[in-house]
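Here's what a typical entry looks like (Carboxylic ester hydrolase):
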Amino acid sequence: MPFPPGSPLYDLTAYRSNSSSEDCLFLNVYTPNVSSSADLPVMLWLHGGGLALGTADSYPAEIPTSFHNVVMVTINYRLGNLGFLPTGDAETDGNVALLDMAKALRWVQANIRNFGGDPDRVTIFGQSGGGWGVSLLVMSPETRGLFRRAISQSGVAGLGTSRRGDTARTETLAASVNCTTASFDDMMSCLRSKPAKDLLYLDIPMPISGGRELPADDLWDLMHKKQVNEVDYLLGTTKNEFGYAQLAIVPEVTADGLDRTLLPTILPVQLKIFADQFPDGDVSAIVQPVIDQYMDPDNDDPSYTRDQFIQLMTDNRFTAATVLMAQAAAAHDSRVYQYEFQHRTSVFPERPAYVGADHGDELFYMFGIPFMRDVTGNSWKYNFSEEERELSLDMMAYWVNFAANGDPSDSTGAARMRDLVTWPRYVTSSQSYLKIDVTSSADVKIRESNMKFWNEEVPRLMGKEITTGGGEKSTWSLSLVAFSAVLYLLQ
């Protein structure tokens, strides 16, 4: 189903806000075979953008489908306050974006055979805000049975959720557009009368927990108790998630490094989104422990401090929650695979040397961008190396193999590009993961001390009682500024 007229298709790195519309619930289907008997694996893509920006139309899914026997579906969903504004509604209370995603999955179940897809082999995958969305669907009872596998890239829910009934964000929005009234219902009526463009981006959107879509009051606690839907799960991060683009919001970091004496001022601001999920604690309680965990007291070199700051923010915003979700999924019979993308992309020479694999870098390889050509047959926009084209072949194969067989190393039925490094399964005892690069390799227990620090010690410091479950079966078993900067820098 094609998109309505809009921006050019090959738009992976160029967001255009003037193409947005309330009439956004469209999807694209890419297929190498329209025979209803083809029974190909299906992959449904949730785009990134901090749940506030982005469009499915920016991702060229026809490249992976030209290399592999797979059907890909890319969808739009409501963004910003249109998707996640607390409304007080007894049924949805603001999680309408999750309902959009669930509706797309139901459409796939009903129609994908007409495009050669197998509704029993549906994998949802997404990056950044889309990765968040994937993890929310893995936690939601509303989508149980609608997909078999899931992939979260650089985004897992665990930070920044609103509680059901908390309408403070809605009231703040109402005040900003002159909709303050004595009655909440009147306030909502006033908001509904406003143009959508006036409501979208006042605040970073947050999913609402405690309702029909996300019954648990505390998603972080839900992962600790290992109560998630039982699906195969592949998930991971890049080595420097808090890299070039994210550092744009921390002006104290420069090419010369970071003055260590500034950390007590910087960290309370940067850790607030993490601390806010612990209402009994205060961010001031963890600032010094964080410094002690990551900084050598005998090394005040600004370059060292900067590099460690990037690592601690990468772990805090991305890696720790990913590990927590991997542990929750692995407690079931699910097949789980973790990765860290470590390749420093060659086509962005303007990036400083201290930034390696940045937020979003894996998308180029997973979507096959090194193989794109313009109308003259030359490389489109960027000249990737031959090694990077091989890396792209590997990543497309890993992702499609997982969707097809539940094992990224199992190429049964797939076009064989080259021998793949075996990707070990993540289990609780070994916690294996794959370091993805032009020469990939396996390792275990990614930054183990740091992960225990964020997932166990810090919550205790914030007054949280750590409760772990045994993986019992259940019926339902990060940022806007950074994403905008990524898209701007890669134009």
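The first strand starts at residue 27 and ends at 30.

More examples are in the samples folder.
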